[in-house]
Structure formats: structure tokens, C-alpha cells
Amino acid sequence: MSHSSHSSTASPTGRTTHPRSAVARLLSHTRAHARAGAIPRALRRTSLVAATLLTLCATAEADAVLFENVRIFDGTGADLTPPMNVLVEDGLIATISAEPVDADGAERIAGDGRVLMPGLIDAHWHTMLASVTPMEALGDVSYNAIVAADEATATLMRGFTTVRDVGGPAFGLKRAIDEGLVQGPRIYPSGAMITTTSGHGDFRQVTELPRGLGDAHSRMEVVGGSMLADSPDEVRLRVREQFMLGATQIKLTAGGGVSSPHSPIDVTTFTPDELRAAVEIADNWGTYVTVHAFTIDAIEGAIEAGVKCIEHGFLMDDATAQAIAEHGIWLSPQPLPEALRLGFPEGSVQRAKADEVWPGIDRTYELAKTYNIKTAFGTDVLFSRELARSQGAILASLVRWYTPAEALAMATGTNAELLALSGPRNPYPGKLGVVEEGAFADLLLVDGNPLEDIALIADPENSFKIIMKDGVIEKNTLTD
Ligand SMILES: [Zn+2]
Predict the structure, then answer these.
(1) Hey, what's the torsion of the CAs at 182, 397, 122, 161, to 10 degrees?
(2) Most buried among 7, 12, 25, 341, by the most CB within 10 A?
(3) Residue 464: which domain range?
(4) Same domain (yes/no): 359, 461
(5) Looking at residue 66, which CATH number applies to its domain?
(6) Are residues 299 and 445 in the same domain?
(7) Do 113 and 124 fall within a single domain?
């Protein structure tokens, strides 16, 4: 059993790491079997079992899985294929064929005509902030890490096999998932959001001002949620720190936001020099900057500075949309649910800001279509375990503007193209988001046809009979 093809990658610090070592993969298999009752719970994670299985697997080829008789949504097209057989070996899709596939020793899965599709990708996710309250986010880091690990498993069980994390201290959880200690998605971390004083992401109280110079850090900085930067030099420092920690891309907040208490929507935060400083360092690291931006001014400033992706963009106009398209810049909007707006208390500053931004959601999707902008899909769930549960439903709500096939292609093949912008910082070099030979085996076996019934995506518990990540079966309820 060989994992050499994709189990070793150079980390941003130049070290060679093993995000999915042979033993980690085995432990994961052990877990999968344990769930199926084959191995007593108490023995799941002992190295003795892993070592024994390692020996057995050398001959048994336990890594191979053969999906028989499945119709494929490949992550890019508009239709399903005729019935196919798909062989997964060593974490990759090895063979796709309409003919019988010779796979001695492979675990066989009878697809019975069900749909096989790529695992879903959320391009705007906050691994560490999705399920805690704002108060908790600034509190006990070990509690928050456990909540986030639990949420990561739930995220994976909703069929999201990869997330782009656009703010929060996700590095440790990413590592634990890659090591097989926790079930969760692949994470492309940005680390702390970089914000200005009073920018979106500055969650301090006014009683904490004035900020000290030198080593004085606020609580949100200590926990790694967001970092303040008020000069080009400070931007360079904070951006480099995120790369040292393992960031795959950098997130700046270029204008005001809804949830932060002291950042009016109309205010443009970073100066052109500060934005360019971030872009320059990201460029030095071979990757890119994405910015939180609603207004025309914030978006246009970001474009001029060389930013490659705009988050939200909800207050853009035709000219801005045209500029985004002409520069080949990505737009990462979210079909934010109405319930989220109504969740802000009436009369609050946040509610007033939400009321201003929400009407722009529909207009922005229309502009993205009109100007043929490269458009990613994300949910931006923050501080709500309940909303996190509707991650699939939020994706399904894209049918307000797109066909089901277009929506699902956006959340798979298209989102994967955005992730690949991280270049040499990509922790999972290889093809994601598609069902094709040589791609990572991140796969969902769906009980029904989501191209005809997008609601299946909103009900992952019943719809996704098998969830596979990196060739490992993370969920299998086919036999239930
Ligand atoms: Zn966000």
C-alpha cells in the first residue's frame, strides 16, 4: 500500500509534512470499521491495531473501493453520465469505466444507479466561529477547539469535504483533521482576518481604546480571530505571521461589515498603500489576497491593489461588476438567508446594516450572471450552530438564480479552481471538486438525482448514503 503519490507535501515553512500518513489513513479506516462494528470501540485508536492492520493491508489492498453502477455528476457538466464503475485507489480516482473494472480485493459498493458526485466545497467558511457565540469566540480556546472539532465532523457529514476558511484560528484543527484524529473537511486556512482599527473584524469595545503600542494585544488578536494593522508595515508583519502559521491565502477586511459593532458599511478601511502591502507579501508567497468588501469604493480600491477575490460585494453596481469581470477577479457572494437578517435584534446597529446590505444579494447575483464573473459559492455561517445545520439548504437556495447543475458545479468544480489560486501554498495539491481519473477521491453517493431535485442537498443525513474523503469512507448508510 503506497501513499507516496500525494501524502507528502512541502509546508509553507518548507518542512515536509504528512497530512495523511499511512498510519493516519489506517486509523481512519479503523474508525470506519469500528463504526460498522467490526472493531471494538475501545480499540479504535490504539497503535497496536494500526500496526497490525498496516501489515494486513500490505496484502489486502484495503484502500481500494469500487463503486459499481453509478451515474456521475462530474462537477462541471450539466448532465449525468450513463451507468459507470469507479475505482478508488490510494485516495485517488483511479478508473472510471462503463465496462466492468477488474479490482481484486477492492471493497465493492453496489451503486444501483445512484448518483456519484464530488464532495461539496464551501468557499466562505469560518471553521472556528461557525458554532460558538461571539462571547465564546473570545473565551476559552480549548472549549472552542472542541466545539469546532465537533462542527468540523458535522460539516463533513453534510457532504462538505473541503472548506476555505476566511477568518479564525483554524490551523490546529486542520492539522488534527489531516492527521486523522478528527473527522472533518480539508481546510484552506486564512488564519486571522487582517483588519484596521474600527474595521470589520475589530470586535473590541470602545472602552479598550486607546490601543497600546508594542506588545499590547486585544483578546481577539491573542486567540487569532483577527489582527489589527494600521500601516503598511503592520500589514506586512501580520500577513507574514499568517503565512508562518500556515495560511493558504490572506483575508483582509477592506470595508465595513454587518456583524462588527464599530465598522459603518460606507467606510473604506485600508488605504491603497496598505492593501498593496498585503498583496505584495501574498505575491511573494505565491498566493493571493481576498477582501471582505460591500461598497463600490472598497471593491474598486481592492481591484486597483491587485486583490484576486472579493467576498460578498453586495453593494456593487454595473460598472464595478464590469471591472471585476475585466480583471478576471473572483467574486465570492453568499445567498445569505433572510432568517439571518431577522436574527439581528430590531433597532440594533447590526440590523440597520443588514437591512442596507440584504437587498444587494439578489442584485449582485444578477450582475455576476450578466457580466459572466467567476463566481464562487460560500455560506459565511457565523456564531450559529443552527444555521450551520442549514449549510446544504443555503447551497440549494442558489436555484433562485441558477439551475441545480450550475449551483452544484459552482460548489464543486468552480470552487476548486478558486482554491487552486493558493499555488505553492496549496496543502492538497491535486485535483479537487471533480469526478475524473487522477482527482482526489472526495465523493458523495446520493440517493436520488440532485440535478432534478436540489432539495436532496439540503437533507444530507438521508440523501448522502456514502461520504468519502481522500479515498476513506467517512459515512456509509447504504446497508441500513
Ligand atoms: Zn465571513
Answers:
(1) 40
(2) 25
(3) 9-118+435-476
(4) no
(5) 2.30.40.10
(6) no
(7) no
Is 3 part of a structural domain of the chain? no
CA of 312 to the centre of ligand 1 (A): 9
In the Cβ-directed half-sphere of 285, how many Cα atoms lie within 13 Å?
29
- Rounded to two decimals, the pTM is 0.88
For residue 341, the domain's CATH number is 3.20.20.140
Element (H, E) at 427: none
Per-residue pLDDT of the chain (480 residues; tens, 9 = 90+): 333 333 334 333 333 333 444 444 444 444 444 333 333 333 334 444 444 444 444 433 458 999 999 999 999 999 999 999 999 999 999 999 999 999 999 999 999 999 999 999 999 999 999 999 989 999 999 999 999 999 999 999 999 999 999 999 999 999 999 999 999 999 999 999 999 999 998 888 888 888 876 667 889 999 999 999 999 999 999 999 999 999 999 999 999 999 888 899 999 999 999 999 999 999 999 999 999 999 999 999 999 999 999 999 999 999 999 999 999 999 999 999 998 899 889 999 999 999 999 999 999 999 999 999 999 999 999 999 999 999 999 999 999 999 999 999 999 999 999 999 999 999 999 999 999 999 999 999 999 999 999 999 999 999 999 999 999 999 999 986
- Ligand 1 center to 126 CA (angstroms): 7
Q: Is the dihedral of CA 382, 383, 384, 385 positive or negative?
A: positive
User: Do residues 383 and 314 share a domain?
Assistant: yes
Are the CB atoms for 414 and 373 separated by under 8 Å?
Answer: no
Query: Ligand 1 center to residue 311 CA distance, Å?
Result: 8
Distance 474 CA to ligand 1 centre (A): 27
- Find all residues with CB under 8 Å of 105, minimum gap 6, and list them: 60, 61, 62, 64
User: How far apart are the CA of 228 and the centre of ligand 1, in A?
Assistant: 17
Domain co-membership, 112 together with 139? no
